[in-house]
């Protein structure tokens, strides 16, 4: 089995130790992760610092062209990259799986290439001229999770380099291989040192957050780790973008048509087998159509094959690792003990791979862990309600604030209710849609800052106000 290597200063960097990366569908070894050290991290930061002045001063058109060239490289390598994602992360090649992830990378890279940072003129009169310029921050440290490893890496790296920064990325130890391949591809078109990759244990992430040579951290991951990043970044006053966990509510109003909305609800909850930050994780359904919505969801779930993602027929895969499998199983068991009624699933079959069946749990409410916490798996609690105002207030009591949706035959009425939800994105009759031209980020505990579009690009800059 060929080893993947870290990339530092434009060159592959061998490691003396490696850790096996497990294929979550089979338990086989998907590849070996280089165990990077603190010395490797320091070398990567040095390489990024050395490359920074040249890259920041490069003509804007060159950086734009480089981002388009990265998109083309990813597209050329699409099949290999998708297979690697499936092998280490588990999501199917097919459906909303790894080919979809790679396609998203290509689209996002092209769209980010086309973003600009024009000088803003805030005053130009006989009193003088005031311009607001955007400058790159410096060296950006990117720390990524395991659920959409390559797409999230693109979301971090592309705006950083587009704005003139250089980067050191550290992927999750569960899914490091596809990121190493991605960074190797980027290094075919970028000057040495502009994008560097180190892999290794979680501690390397902590070392990045406090590293004096890193100017900004962009972190996507859990709320608990996000708090640690923020605390350890304080010593060097780093700029931060934190994209953290979600526990998105979906609210179905009494006038919704259960059969018409069921497929949207299903994929809103179960994209990537539920392992998506902006997936629906609690579903509130009006009493008058509660049973019809449950029946429609159960019927759809029966038609969605789950299995090894390398087989084309599957559209759902395993949980990505044992930690996540145990967490999901524990939350379902807790709900059962507290009166939850299993409408489907809840009974993993055992055997190879971390497969947990699509599971719907009714007869639960806020106050149950499955409703209150982010389950991040193929399990949806369905909560019956009778008063819309009351359920909006209850949904808003949750400390998460990433996304939310309202489902109804009256889109205008649904939009008004959606806007009362305390979260960074809301959707009407759909859930989880994102686009490269629309800012995305969490409020409350779900994060600080946004990604995508001009607002996302500006997160990779500092302001210089020029009075002239
Ligand atoms: P995690 O917090 O366990 O790990 C994320 C990354 O942080 C990994 O690379 C890990 O190695 C690193 N890390 C661990 N300890 C660290 C420390 N002390 N300092 C710095 N880095 C450290 O998260 P995960 O389990 O990989 O990902 C799942 C979580 O990510 C979910 O909560 C999900 O909602 C969230 N997520 C959020 C978004 C978003 O855009 N808001 C997107 C995807 C995932």
Mind sketching the topology for me?
Blueprint: E1 6-8, E2 11-13, E3 18-22, E4 29-34, H1 38-57, H2 60-76, H3 78-89, H4 98-113, E5 120-125, E6 128-136, E7 139-143, H5 149-162, E8 166-170, H6 177-187, E9 195-197, H7 203-209, E10 216-220, H8 223-233, E11 239-243, E12 248-252, H9 258-270, E13 280-286, H10 290-301, H11 322-337, E14 341-344, E15 359-362, H12 369-372, E16 379-385, H13 388-397, E17 403-407, H14 411-418, E18 425-428, E19 447-448, H15 453-458, E20 461-467
Parallel strand pairs: 7-8, 7-10, 8-9, 10-11, 12-13, 12-17, 13-16, 15-16, 17-18
Antiparallel strand pairs: 1-2, 3-4, 5-6, 6-20, 11-19, 14-15
Bound molecules: nicotinamide-adenine-dinucleotide.
Nicotinamide-adenine-dinucleotide (NAD) binds at residues 143-147, 152, 170-173, 202, 205-206, 209, 220-222, 225, 228-229, 243-246, 277, 374, 376, 402, 442, 447.
Give an overview of the whole structure.
α2 (60-76) packs antiparallel against α4. The chain has two domains: 6-244 and 443-467, Aldehyde Dehydrogenase, Chain A, domain 1 (3-Layer(aba) Sandwich); 248-428, 3-Layer(aba) Sandwich (Aldehyde Dehydrogenase, Chain A, domain 2). The strands form five sheets. A seven-stranded mixed β-sheet has the order 14-15-16-13-12-17-18, sandwiched between helices. With 468 residues, it is of the alpha/beta class. It is built from 15 helices and 20 strands.
Work out the strand percent.
15-25%
Instruction: Indicate the CATH topology of the largest domain.
Output: Aldehyde Dehydrogenase, Chain A, domain 1
Catalogue the ligands. Answer: nicotinamide-adenine-dinucleotide
CATH second-level architecture of the largest domain: 3-Layer(aba) Sandwich
CATH class call of the largest domain: Alpha Beta
Structural Rg? 23 Å
Overall pLDDT metric: 97
User: Strand order of the main beta sheet, please?
Assistant: 14-15-16-13-12-17-18
How far is it from the N-terminal to the C-terminal residue, by CA? 61 Å
Structural class: alpha/beta
Q: What's the total helix number?
A: 15
Number of domains: 2
Low-confidence segments, given as residue ranges, are none
**What's the number of extended β-strand segments?**
20
Largest sheet: 7 strands, mixed
Task: Bin the helical content.
Answer: 25-40%
